[in-house]
Amino acid sequence: MERREGANARIRMLTPYERAEEEIKKTLPEEKVLFFLPSDMSLQGEFTKGWLAVTDKELIYLKDKECEEDQRLEIISKLSMDSLSNVKAVMLVGGGQLEAEIDGELTVLVRYSSGLQPRYSQLERYLTRVIDGEQVASIPDIEESTCSKCGRVFPDESRICPNCINKFKVLLRLLSILKPYISLMVGTLAIFWILTGIRLVMPQLQRLLIDDLLRAGKKDLNLLLLYVGAMAAGRVISVGLTIIRGRLMVKLSNNLSRDLRNMVYAKIQALSLSFISQKKTGDLMNRVTGDTNTIRSFLERHAVEWINEGLIFIGVVIILLISDWRLAILVLLPAPFVVLYSKMIWDRVRSMQRYERKLWDKSNSILQDTLSGARVVKAFGQEEREVDRFKTSAYDFAKATARNEKLFNTLYPTLGFVMGLGNFFVMYFGGKLVWGNEMKLGELVQFTAYASMIYGPLQYLSFIPRWFTSAMTAAERIFEVIDEEPDVKDAIDPVRLPRIRGEVSFDDVTFGYQKHEPVLKDINLNVQPGEMIGLVGHSGAGKSTLINLLNRFYDVDEGSITIDGVDIQQISQNELRSQIGVVLQETFLFSGTVWENIAYSKPGAKADEIIRAAKIANAHDFIMRFSDGYDTKVGERGQRLSGGERQRIAIARAILHNPRILILDEATSSVDTQTEKQIQEALGRLIQNRTTFAIAHRLSTLRNATRLLVLEKGKMVELGTHEELIKARGTYFKLVMAQREMSRIRWIDG
Amino acid sequence: MEIGEDKKTQIDIDEQGELEEAVTEGLAEYVDVVYLEPAKTSFYRTPGGVIALKLEDKTYPRVNLHRAFPFSLGDKYISVREGSGQEIGIITDLDDFDEKARGILKEELERRYFTPEILCINSVKSEFGYSYWEVETDRGHRRFTVKGRGDSVIPIDEVRYLIMDMDGNRFEISDIRKLDRKSKKYLEGMI
Hints:
The structure holds 2 protein chains of 2 kinds.
Chain A: H1 16-27, E1 33-41, E2 47-55, E3 58-64, E4 73-80, E5 84-92, E6 95-102, E7 105-112, H2 117-131, H3 167-177, H4 182-214, H5 221-270, H6 273-278, H7 281-303, H8 305-323, H9 325-332, H10 335-372, H11 374-379, H12 383-435, H13 441-483, E8 504-511, E9 520-527, E10 532-536, H14 543-550, E11 558-563, E12 566-567, H15 573-578, E13 580-583, E14 592-593, H16 594-598, H17 607-616, H18 620-625, E15 633-634, H19 643-657, E16 661-665, H20 673-686, E17 691-695, E18 707-712, E19 715-720, H21 722-728, H22 731-749
Parallel strand pairs in A: 10-17, 10-18, 13-16, 16-17
Antiparallel strand pairs in A: 1-2, 2-3, 3-4, 5-6, 6-7, 8-9, 8-11, 11-12, 14-15, 18-19
Helix pairs in contact in A: 3-13, 4-5, 4-8, 4-13, 5-7, 5-13, 7-13, 8-9, 8-13, 9-12, 10-12, 10-13, 12-13, 17-19, 19-20
Chain B: H1 2-12, H2 16-31, E1 41-45, E2 51-55, E3 58-60, E4 63-67, E5 76-82, E6 87-93, H3 99-112, E7 118-127, E8 130-137, E9 140-147, E10 153-155, E11 161-164, E12 170-173, H4 181-190
Antiparallel strand pairs in B: 1-2, 2-3, 4-5, 5-6, 7-8, 8-9, 10-11, 11-12
């Protein structure tokens, strides 16, 4: 939605929204625009600039008025809201269309390109609710994926535009993290300046040696030794300092990136689940590892270096201008060309390398495919074809590499030549000056020495903006995480609840991951200590959401959840969760030993506690069959555990944890009957004397439940014992019947 | 979607016998590939702008056309589906139909697989991992943004390319050889 905000002050182009509003106000004064979105395609599929405005009474299609300067929009067609039904935003390939039944006739209303699909889906939901007669208050904005300032796309689902961030502000903030290392930084900077100084002084010594000693014809051996000695000493010092500088830089950058990484990691752990589940795991991992690395390498290689190179460049240019401004201009003349030329070469080389890289990946993936699919290849006798396929890709790669290397080896030396071009002029004109006694030989040598010093820094500096931008973007992405406020906050003065009894009650709880779309509506439930509540409903009915709320991974939008009469928002999250145990649908084991995995809920648990928990969970026997017993490694490189074994380890974990409230999420799925029996037995022991919430798609697993809560589209539809609900012949009854049929069919098919 | 609906119908049927019948019938439908013969079908556009089908004595007020091999076989093997998603049958080749029906079907396919042809590339700018394109297409002027550099320019064959932008819009270059020099240079830079 485009808003009217910021319309004050300066004269500017009116936004399409404002133009539409104006037009509608003029022609239809009673109506108010509630929803406004572009339709960038005509019904015939030509790109156009059309707009769809939705008022409280009508849908209005507008278009730019042709051949007019006054920015007016024209109303092309109108449609009364009363005649509409069954509105759908249908997603097609590469676009979509809004359809509706107008007085029963299915009609295509507008077409739009793919990018607008989310907004039209939102419109569909909105219109459906309006047509159903629901009161729809506000329409939330859809988050823009492009920068409002420059229109560039935010990379990697962040909200940071690499073009528009205030890079220097970010740099300052980055430097503020460097505070503990201030002495280290000052030290490195000092070394940099000394090194720069030495580099700038060396040609001076050269000149003095030639002009004062060699050319003057004085045969003073001591003075010669002194000059040569000074030059040698300068070299030695600069080598030594370079070594020290390198070591300091590595230390500094590593410390900083370590600090950053720890900061981000700690922050991610502290953030609520909603933040973590919004981002992709890969993206978060990238911020902890990739972004901190980018910053590290920038600090290590470039942060101080570019100041240094910049100083050298300025220093040399000044010295050159002072020595002889005419020659200086000759040297500097090719500079812009050199910068452009080197940029061009590097761009070319980079795009070639990218192509090469792609072919390399392709050839690699063939290799990986055929190795991991070796059985299939052999079974179908396709070895020869695979060999041919690999040959082709290897040939392509070799060809590309050869071409790239050839080109690079041709271009790169020419760059050196172009950089040295100025020197020929200097030699020629400088030589003439020396003949004319306008310049001493030493001065000329010194001059050429300085002249050769400007192109290195110049080339280097031309790359700095790119490095700087990428490092600052990375830093900003890290700061984005660090600055994130957790949605679920601890109360300032939490109520202490060291040992809860387990009375749980939901009072008028309403919640949606997006506030305008409630997933749970008006849930009322009172659970006595020790009761087991089975949660039943289709997927998407809100069962898992209910559990998420009880764990306080999210806060309710309306109503409250209390445990022993205390609102869970008043209990500290740590204390709350330490008394809630979870056995999840997909049992997650960390890589480590069986022991460590069971003891995860209670670090430092004693051996006999572990064994006891494993015994109760029916896990002890299979663990003892492993040759390494409880020290058996599980996870990626360890012992492979079956689904049933993993579940029993998770149950042992929960038993050791000894929580007052237990959550079982479809704890038994896809295991054989024998294992299921064992798991059921273990669960039976686990739930004793605990308030339990259990989600199961297979209703037979809920036979232990005291009461069942049936959810449908986020609403509570039934609550009662199995027998009561069967008698009622409602939703639960239908579910049970359907499942019986399903298992019968499966049995016949199998 | 389809599974959800199946479940619903199953739940609605209380009698066990009925349910069993419904299931076997469903299975039989899955096994047979129904080919739509031009003689027995009649496609037409409704006043509302959607395609309807009269198949023998049955009328489908709204059908959708899905290409089975959108890249390799284009207008051959087109699945004709009901509004609910159920397949009615398969058209083997559009060319088997008379001109009028072919016109309607082609138009509908073009609508569903909206893929403007790029006639000329005015500029391509790469920045921060995205490239910003400005092109002239047979459907008019267009700007779009492509994620990454090369991965979104997909070669279909030697000369044909498909470009997918970050929103899922598609653009086609049916013959790279027919592009002017500047456009070709821009495109080559992105492959």
